[in-house]
Amino acid sequence: MASSGYLSRAQGAVRILHAAARGTAAVTAVFCLVIVVILAMSLAQARKADPIDSPVLEKLIREMADRPDDEDLKYQIRSLDLLTRRAHFATRAFIRNGAFLLLGGVVLLLASLRVLSVLERRLPEPAAADAAEPPHLFSERGRRAMSIAGGAALAASVVLGILFGSRTVPPASVSRPPSPRPDGGDVPLFPSREEMLRNWPGFRGPDGNGIAYCTRAPLKWNGATGKGVLWKTEVPRPGFSSPVVWGGRVFLSGADRDGREIFCFDADTGDLLWRASASGIPGSPAALPEVMDDTGHAAPTMATDGRRAYAMFSTGDLMAVGLDGKKVWGRNLGVPRNGYGHSSSPIVFRDTLLVQYDHAGGARLLILDARTGETRQETVREVETSWSSPIIVETESGPLAVLCADPTVAGYDPETGLELWAVKCLEGAEVGPSAAYANGLVFAANDNAKCAAIDLETEKILWDRLEELPDCASPLAVGAFLFLASSAGEITCLEARTGKVLWQREFDDGFYASPIAAGDRVYLTDRNGVTHVFRAGAKYEEVAANPLGEKSDCTPAIVTGRIFLRGRKHLYCVGEK
């Protein structure tokens, strides 16, 4: 009798499991069908709303040919292009996340059907089942099982939808109308592409990519003798931030235990126009964090959009000042927790400021409103501490922010902060160098990891190598060539498309500064302050070796006819008057 009772309970359990599996399969099938319909509608909408082929935008561009000086029309074009691309990337993200949901639903459906097929063979005969257990008991348990299974599937789909949906552009970002221009309309909200290329708005110049968009640059100078030097001026406080240039102004930051400041120099004379103290910032720590001597408290290079200048310090303080030196806003992002001190530089993108804030307290990409400092978007990053800075890449699909850290190189939508792709290639490294870009390829390199070329079309590694890698200086991509400079004093030139070594050259002093390209020449300053100028070619051809007269770890800023270099104590301007 005991065995008969046990068999009856087992048969009842099989029926309950069978009902649960059947309910789960039914709910999952409906869920998959709904996802397929939504994806089909989204794909159709994406084809209609192609940002590259917008009839309205094309019409405005045609009107621009007749009114090339119409600033209002230019502003309309930029605003429409901005909103269209925002919607495009949001739709792409929605489709990608929907595909993941569909895949999960299909897997669950197949698993449920498999369970059903197994249980079908184990179901008891109807008569036996009726004798073993009252029908009403099965019906109650079956309905309960089906309700639980259906509810669980529905809850799971809702939770997954919320989790994945939260990574798309929030409604406020998509629907936000173009912000009005300051003071009613004479000055555009953010600089044009042409303005950015004419100036040196941040670390490694426009886009942070190490390319100087100028027709001429000085070739020879000597800071010790004054040959080719237009002016030399002392910087009031130390720092490893590199010069930033906009119009007739040069910006630098400096800091020590007594204070943190922004300095503005006259680009023609070297006169100190003003200095602004980074004090009175809410949340700023009372005590300075411990940093290495090679980093200091003012390592991040400043950024500017020609409207304001932005500076960041080891404390996590971020400050914006007007071109007259008056404080516009300041905020503390939290004291960065790392072993050397903070050195990642912010970068301007249209009317925002992008900050890569990867440290032991939490890695994230911040997109801040350049006028107010308020956070527009914040993206949590699953990476280790890094000292790298973002770069901006202009692609056929729209602009892309590329960030490097252990273990990934990742591409983000600079408007929404949405991660579009990530490639693991920097595992186990303390990442300092930023990325480089040319001809559809993103390059990342770091000592103790590898140098990798990532094809943006496939979002996969095209090639990689393990030797002669930088630990501070960022790579430089110029046409068909990729240049790497190490702190051991070695320069390596690779064929960008294949990774083949074309030439190598060893120097007595190492390189912390990043190489910069101007035309067909590369400028690279070693730690002793000597700037080596050589051709960007398949063979090493030295053009000049220019001593500064003092040590330097800062990257030069190159604008038409002039180069601005920061030494340990002075700021120099070399070139034409």
Labels describing this entry:
2 domains, 4-stranded antiparallel β-sheet, 577 residues, alpha+beta, 7 helices, Methylamine Dehydrogenase, Chain H
Describe the protein:
With 577 residues, this protein is an alpha+beta fold. The protein has 2 domains: 2-175; 182-575, Methylamine Dehydrogenase, Chain H (7 Propeller), CATH 2.130.10.10. The chain is 27% helix and 29% strand. The chain has 7 helices and 33 strands. It has helices at 2-48, 55-66, 71-120, 126-132, 135-165, 171-175, 193-198; strands at residues 211-212, 229-234, 244-246, 249-256, 259-266, 272-277, 303-304, 308-312, 317-322, 327-332, 347-349, 352-357, 364-369, 375-380, 391-395, 398-404, 408-412, 419-424, 436-438, 441-445, 451-455, 460-465, 476-478, 481-485, 490-495, 501-506, 516-518, 521-525, 530-535, 542-547, 557-559, 562-566, 570-575. A hairpin with a 4-residue loop joins strand 9 and strand 10. Helix 1 (2-48) runs antiparallel to helix 3 (71-120) and helix 2 (55-66) runs antiparallel to helix 3.
In short:
This protein is of the alpha+beta class. The protein has two domains: 2-175; 182-575, YVTN repeat-like/Quinoprotein amine dehydrogenase (Methylamine Dehydrogenase, Chain H), CATH 2.130.10.
Radius of gyration: 30 Å
The third-level CATH topology of the largest domain is Methylamine Dehydrogenase, Chain H
Q: What's the mean pLDDT score?
A: 84
Q: Kindly state the percentage of residues in helix.
A: 25-40%
Approximate shape: elongated
Structural class: alpha+beta
Q: Termini, distance in Å?
A: 108 Å
Low-confidence stretches: 127-139, 158-184
CATH superfamily of the largest domain: YVTN repeat-like/Quinoprotein amine dehydrogenase
Task: Assess the beta-strand content as a share of residues.
Answer: 25-35%
Number of spatially distinct domains:
2
